[in-house]
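Q: Got a minute? One more chain.
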Amino acid sequence: PVGPGLTLDESFNIAQGVYLADAFTQHGPLLFTPDVAQEVFGTPRYLPDHPPLGRFMLGVSHSLTSTFITGSEETLYNVPAARLGSCAAFGLTVLLLSEFSRRKYGLTTGLLVAGMLTGMPHLMGHSRLAALESCTNLAWVAAMIPLLTWWTRSTAPTTLQAAVSGIFWGLLLLTKVQGIFLPVLLFLWAAAQFREKSIRPLAVFGTLGAIIFFVGWPWLWLDPVKNV
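A: Always. Here it is, folded:
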């Protein structure tokens, strides 16, 4: 169908996303067992240049919508169907950030945030491609909202709040490993803001995030030291 031409990244992302979605459909939770992990992630067909969550989103979109989009009957993959995963990620990003802004600063600010995001050409452009940028933006926003909500108060976050923050950081890492820079910023902020009371929430945040990242990417298990 008429639309942007296929980009180089999409040729990897769509194929890997469909592969991951098919593997999860076939194995379900057993995908997170050693034998199945070796079968799925130990084959040369699997490309571990990026964590799996963003590509998995594109693959799920391909699986759910390809039967409704015509024009790709003679090809192995339905490119527009996979691109809808980026569209969905962009829509959720706008929803999360505008709703957060509305609750914190009022309706006018929330509407302006939504309008500003949808008016950014590079964001709108990437939401039309089966690339990782839109999924990464969503993961960053989802990881930042708990920090902006709970880590900016006069008192340190509770253990539960730190745990939820860590879970979303782990999901960010599973989308793209550039999320490794977030704890550096958080450590500097928390140490300045809460002093010694920052030790517990930072420990919970870092530990749980690392566990989510390691458990959620079975390829790491195959050779933990080398792959990590």
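A: DSSP finds twelve helices and no strands in the chain.
Q: Perfect, thanks.
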